[in-house]
Amino acid sequence: xxxxxxxxxxxxxxxxxxxxxxxxxxxxxxxxxxxxxxxxxxxxxxxxxxxxxxxxxxxxxxxxxxxxxxxxxxxxxxxxxxxxxxxxxxxxxxxxxxxxxxxxxxxxxxxxxxxxxxxxxxxxxxxx
Length: 128
What we know:
Layout: H1 2-30, H2 33-36, E1 41-46, E2 50-57, E3 62-68, E4 71-75, E5 79-86, E6 91-96, E7 101-104, E8 107-113, E9 119-126
Antiparallel strand pairs: 1-2, 2-9, 3-8, 4-7, 4-9, 5-6, 5-8
């Protein structure tokens, strides 16, 4: 009887874990910037460790709500943006500087280029 209960409990745990992994993976795919903003986001490189995305957002342009796993962003232009994060809906204005880099944890956000200069960045997303 104890073996059967252990087998049932283990099976339930595995099903729950599988469901969490699948739903997390599906949520990331739904908010993939390459799919949501193909005019501004291009895949530069990908392997089993990283995905590198080039982002070019013209002055006055907009990136729709999308997600990124944790990673590094390198800015290749000076530009100003308004970033709105989700699910909290907080907005902040930021000034990006050419040649700077920032680390960020996983995020869901939308970005508006509110300056007069085009935005340009490389996002190195870690898969680990």
